[in-house]
Amino acid sequence: MGFPDIDFSLPAPDPLEGDALWFVCYRGRVMVSSQPEQPWFPRLPTPRLIGLEDQPRLYAGRMADCHCYAVALEHEEQVPPGFYLEDLRRLLGRLDEITFTMAGRASQLISWYRNHQFCSRCGAAAEAADSDRAMICPACGYTQYPRITPCVIMLVTSGEYALLARAARFPGGMFSCLAGFMEPGETAEQAVEREVYEETGVRVRDLRYHGSQSWPFPHALMLGFTAEHAAGDIRVDGEEIVEAHWWHYRDLPPVPPGGSIARELIDNWVISCGDIR
Ligand SMILES: [Zn+2]
């Protein structure tokens, strides 16, 4: 997934020229217009116009011709009239891919900034670095970079069947690809093999990297793979994964909505099955 119209480079323009897009963030939610149609972020020369000029802000990058800022709200009550805080997850699929990427980036930057106000080594107040995306401790020099957590997500297939599982946290009867956090010291490929085996007792072979997706809930990076079933019958622990089955490509259960790499992996595989027939 490449984005030619998005530029994350620092530093911010100074002074700000023209309007900017303001992504106002509060605990995994982003402020959007209350108008019923397309979610809309304030595009203004200054956050003063929506009464948020004193809030901490971080430069988030440029989207097409527009500079973007992430703004931290301290309290929910600060949301100005005409706007509300929308759960970032509920914007997935409702915004175009580029705008969602920027909203997710803004949300991640703000949560990182808010959670790293103090040095995690010595407890002194940390300061934002000038030229780098980092919080630096003036007392001991410890540097805290934005936290990004790599996860692997994989579609395991066996001919016209794919292994889809239902986690306890999934809504309704949804099934999806297996996924999990990487462990320190692991390669992504080792993480795929371990997660599939831990969650379903299945061994895989022929891993192929598919692509990655930022998953800002709150700060994951999904690394997508496909893999072939090598050995083993499905067994689940019944706790994290409550059900897992082999599903025929023409008889799939409810799967994740568009906009997710899980859905992309499933859709690509379904198309490839159709091509073979
Ligand atoms: Zn320190």
Structural overview:
- The protein has 277 residues and is an alpha+beta fold.
- It has 2 domains: 6-115, Nucleoside Triphosphate Pyrophosphohydrolase, CATH 3.90.79.20; 149-276, Nucleoside Triphosphate Pyrophosphohydrolase (Alpha-Beta Complex), CATH 3.90.79.10.
- Helices cover 17% and strands 34% of the residues.
- It has 3 helices and 16 strands.
- It has helices at 97-115, 188-200, 261-276, and strands at residues 6-7, 20-26, 29-33, 43-44, 57-63, 66-72, 83-87, 127-128, 135-136, 143-144, 149-158, 161-167, 178-181, 203-215, 220-231, 241-248.
- Strands 1, 2, 3, 4, 5, 6 and 7 form a 7-stranded mixed beta sheet that branches.
- A hairpin with a 4-residue loop joins strand 14 and strand 15 (220-231).
- The longest helix has 19 residues, at 97-115.
- The radius of gyration is 21 Å and the shape is globular.
- The two termini are 28 Å apart.
- The mean pLDDT is 91.
- The chain binds zinc ion.
- Residues 119, 121-122, 124, 137, 139-140, 142 line the site of zinc ion.
Bound molecules: zinc ion
Order of helices and strands: EEEEEEEHEEEEEEHEEEH
The first-level CATH class name of the largest domain: Alpha Beta
Distance between the termini: 28 Å
Q: Within the CATH hierarchy, at the fold level, what is the topology of the largest domain? A: Nucleoside Triphosphate Pyrophosphohydrolase
CATH architecture label name of the largest domain: Alpha-Beta Complex
